[in-house]
Design goal:
Blueprint: H1 18-26, E1 40-44, H2 55-60, E2 71-75, H3 77-82, H4 84-97, H5 101-111, H6 127-133, E3 135-141, E4 148-154, H7 158-177, E5 186-190, H8 197-201, E6 208-211, E7 215-222, E8 225-235, E9 239-246, H9 248-257
Antiparallel strand pairs: 1-2, 3-4, 5-9, 6-7, 7-8, 8-9
The structure holds zinc ion (ZN).
């Protein structure tokens, strides 16, 4: 029987990319799966949401709590690449809907030039075709019922947004609390703020931050639950998403109440 041959390997700074070498030496574990050793840095919020140029412009708008380009957190390769397509999808849709100048810039630099490329699974259909297909006209009526108008809206895949929002929350928690959110925690994502939210969000919280005009966030604890709480994310100062992280017991109580 053939014996496997072992080749001596000299793992040093010279034959591994510096980032990989540093991470290997650090012994850090992936902040997403909590199992594999980290091999790369993951950007939180996703790098694709940021404009390519204009860092100087972003820097001017920063306050002391801000970090213009986001955090770099340790991940294994598999976890780092898992949501790449979802993140690109969010970049495309949010940069179309986003109201501020940074959203416009991200649209021009990232979304528009990639229009003729297909998304995965629909290899023959370009991104532009899919975006056109998802634009719908919605009729809105004012609260007094007097004014009716038609506006164009774009459909957005909530599963993809939810996945990316949850990943961002995991990253923000890791950065702010220095630990992973426990695996058994339950995530609930809201697009329309539930009526109990404004009161909770008005509470003081040390966990707030802003990445230029790309993403702002705030975290408040829920009841006595220390491992997660409520996260409010605002993309391009126009799209609000709420992620609630509950332990399984509390999640059951909330489900019974509602
Ligand atoms: Zn991982």
């Amino acid at each position: 029987m053939l014996q496997p041959r072992l080749w001596p390997v000299n793992i040093s700074e010279t034959n591994l990319p510096p980032v990989q070498y540093q991470l290997m030496k650090s012994g850090l574990i992936c902040y997403l799966c909590g199992k594999n050793e980290a091999e790369s840095w993951d950007h939180v919020p996703p790098k694709t949401l940021f404009p390519k140029k204009g860092v100087e412009h972003l820097a001017l708008t920063l306050d002391r709590m801000s970090n213009s380009r986001g955090y770099k957190l340790p991940t294994c390769k598999a976890c780092n690449n898992l949501l790449n397509l979802d993140e690109e999808y969010i970049r495309d849709r949010f940069s179309i809907v986003g109201q501020n100048t940074i959203a416009r810039q991200v649209f021009k630099e990232g979304t528009q030039p990639s229009y003729m490329r297909p998304y995965e699974r629909s290899k023959t259909v370009s991104k532009l075709d899919l975006i056109r297909r998802d634009i719908v006209t919605v009729v809105t009526t004012s609260s007094d019922g007097l004014i009716t108008r038609k506006v164009d809206g774009i459909k957005i895949d909530s599963d993809r947004v939810d996945r990316v929002a949850i990943k961002i929350v995991k990253g923000l928690y890791y950065q702010n609390c220095g630990d992973r959110i426990l695996d058994e925690q339950v995530f609930q994502v809201y697009w329309d703020p539930p009526n109990w939210l404004p009161e909770l969000l008005s509470k003081q919280s040390p966990t707030v931050g802003r990445f230029g005009e790309v993403l702002s966030y705030k975290n408040v604890a829920i009841k006595d639950d220390k491992s997660g709480g409520i996260w409010w994310l605002s993309f391009y100062k126009s799209l609000g998403i709420i992620v609630v992280v509950l332990n399984p017991q509390l999640a059951e109580e909330v489900a019974k109440e509602s």
